[in-house]
């Protein structure tokens, strides 16, 4: 893949990720706003329910029912007594301070009972207004029969007055603490946890407030729309700290959104990683082809020159000259054979076809021979070997271990610094073999890929150091087949460390 196409792909994936993040963020914001409006609606509904419950409790406590103690009481006398009671609950009366201010003992022939429910609010209020105007017993009896209300105690068909009507007419204050308690019950039922303040304003503009400090710092408000509130009055609910409740409600959507966006991003990044990997493999393939071309080209050219010399420049059949040409050709053919075998050997490393011929071998002897050989080939380098004891025996394949160690030492001579040290130590029933050189040019990316097949540290378009990039891959596989491990670290110097079991 060309670099330009790869950059376009990176930009495209980046844009997709940003757009996906933006969409999910917008969706969560809209979900939050929708849930906020829904919560406010629930708060208003809870407030209305609390108001209804408040007046229902008052109705159960303060509803009055009245009837005569004497069934034979004349109509005119009973009418006078009822008219007296009506006057006592007259809205304009200064004596009336509420239902509890009525003393039944002051009204002869009339009993006042508590806890009576009312079946019709509107009809009874209209009937009460009609009765208050005419003040006749006939009107009251007509109303009672029309509403079909029966006294559960006396079985007399006298009508009842609901406190919802009376309270709405006579009361211009609320017990806000009681209302607050009822509202708490409603909010708890709906699983709403907020800090709140109640404010009641009557028809004269007088205010009652619960939790004034919450109202002062609150920026949000709703109000009751209940028809049971006194005329021209209002009940307001101020609240704060709703974010915790909102997040509790939308946390499921946020988690799901996070999981989905994370999955999309991970998939895109994984795709990008795969594409980048394929790009690197393509580059490695091109480098391998180029390296093989250069590696094979030299011995082939040398053999061609030798054969041409035998054919054109050895007319006298000089045995010495012919022998030199043949020896040169043979050496180059051996080199080609070794390179082909390395390539074929590498192909068998990942399978079970490579069998190890294990026997007891002395690691000291293998390492010493390798150090001496490379010191002879590179006299300008300083190569040293140290060991904690003279002989260190291990069960292994001498041929493959020798090749593996040789690859590490060969790389240190080719790519490392001038000082190279090989050390052998034993600890925890294992051997530690270190190959250290004074070079420190490997970066983190190269360290991660250095043991991969056909990978070579980039050196530009140069071929002063030959190779296929399979030496370290081969070494890693051989060490692993012996039950060991290999790693590389770079600080002030580069160190390849091998761990081998000594059992």
Automatic annotation (TrEMBL):
CDD domains: HATPase, HisKA. The chain crosses the membrane at residues 7-27, 250-272. It catalyses: ATP + protein L-histidine = ADP + protein N-phospho-L-histidine. GO terms for cellular component: plasma membrane. SUPFAM superfamilies: ATPase domain of HSP90 chaperone/DNA topoisomerase II/histidine kinase, Homodimeric domain of signal transducing histidine kinase. It comes from the Bacteria. GO terms for biological process: cellular response to phosphate starvation. GO terms for molecular function: phosphoprotein phosphatase activity; phosphorelay sensor kinase activity. The keyword Transmembrane applies. Its EC number is 2.7.13.3. Residues 291-503 form the Histidine kinase domain. It is an enzyme of class 2 (transferase). Keywords: Kinase, Membrane, Phosphoprotein, Transferase, Transmembrane, Transmembrane helix, Two-component regulatory system. SMART domains: HATPase_c (SM00387), HisKA (SM00388). This is histidine kinase. It comes from Leeuwenhoekiella marinoflava.
